Amino acid sequence: MKDNNDMPGHLARRFQQISVAVFLAEVEDAGFDLTPVQYAALATIKANPGLDQVTLAGLIAYDRTTITGVIDRLVQKGLAERRPSSRDRRARELEITDEGRRTLRKITPAVESAQRIMLRGLSAKEGEELMRLLRKAIAAGNELSRAPLRDAQL
Amino acid sequence: MKDNNDMPGHLARRFQQISVAVFLAEVEDAGFDLTPVQYAALATIKANPGLDQVTLAGLIAYDRTTITGVIDRLVQKGLAERRPSSRDRRARELEITDEGRRTLRKITPAVESAQRIMLRGLSAKEGEELMRLLRKAIAAGNELSRAPLRDAQL
DNA sequence: TACTGATAGTCAGCATACTGATCAATAAGA
DNA sequence: TCTTATTGATCAGTATGCTGACTATCAGTA
């Protein structure tokens, strides 16, 4: 009988479960209310001002139908803006607000602390190796999910 | 600027995303309709007949509020049964049905195939190392999520 | 230019996950 | 034994994620 602990899928789920819990706890301790998904979206909007939702989805490997709700909540919190694109009337251009910029800046230490805590059982070398192996497995499986990672077309 | 690819949390999410997609695709190809979560729950019920929902949750590290819905769906599909415990009138005892047993048996090749596909970018040695590091990181962070892994109290 | 196919965004519906609350029942203590 | 704390299960509410469908728009082509 194969144990759960021999199933990469089970280990993936568990590691992700812990990493989300750690992220939320650190961010809340810092006095903010932002999910990992919202953080990644906001940071990516800041790094790519004016990008549309499909491009954003590709850059962080979210499904496009998930993005809609995430942006809704960022807009509702006053951290991002969504406005119609002038070049393509189907598309919406995304911008970070000053409030969003402030939040990102203040929240960064908590986010970095969370990344350390997730790996606290591993040595520095092991942590690097884990990330390398995850990147490699992810690269090989990129096209297998509905929401693969995509470079921006600029 | 720290890249997403340097964030273990982001890599965890992405690996989990791919592993769920692979699992569902393999299982559907085999002609079944069972999620990773439902599979883990069903296999654990089979291995521990008559266990209650809290024990099940602990064995696979699910939140107890999530288990309710998962069992609902297993029962609705005729794969498991939920009946009041004779020893503790608060608790429900879980049993796998014959249909559930049959499903588990027939679905196993697809599940194992899925585990291989998730790691297809890695050598056998790298796959082992990835699982070892995940297990180690998970063990250190076990208590950090609301749904830690727990041994059965038997 | 009219048609066809592809694309951006949204929506309904379903399945995890979590927070925090509630209810019933049990266990532990004074 | 009476009281109190704890526990098993569920529920309401919220946030990912996905499938599949739909509208509006755009792009390529006959």
Biggest sheet strand order of chain A reads 1-2
Oligomer designation: homodimer
Main sheet attributes: strand count, strand direction, barrel closure of chain A: 2 strands, antiparallel
N-to-C order of helices and strands of chain A: HHHHEEHH
Strand percent estimate of chain A:
5-15%
Query: CATH class of chain A, please?
Result: Mainly Alpha
Q: Examine the coordinates and then state which fold CATH places here, giving the name of the CATH topology of chain A.
A: Arc Repressor Mutant, subunit A
For CATH, the homologous superfamily of chain A is named as Winged helix-like DNA-binding domain superfamily/Winged helix DNA-binding domain
Helix content of chain A: 55-70%
InterPro entries (chains A, B): HTH_MarR-typ, MarR/SlyA-like, WH-like_DNA-bd_sf, WH_DNA-bd_sf
Protein name (chains A, B): Transcriptional regulator, MarR family
Domain HTH marR-type (chains A, B): 8-139
Organism (chains A, B): Bradyrhizobium yuanmingense
Note the main attributes of this structure:
homodimer; DNA-binding; 154 residues; 6% strand; Arc Repressor Mutant, subunit A; two-stranded antiparallel ribbon; globular; 2 strands; 61% helix; mainly alpha
Set out the fold topology:
2 copies of one chain form a homodimer.
Chain A: H1 8-29, H2 36-47, H3 53-60, H4 64-76, E1 80-84, E2 92-96, H5 98-118, H6 124-141
Chain A binds a DNA duplex (30 and 30 nucleotides) through α1, α2 and α4.
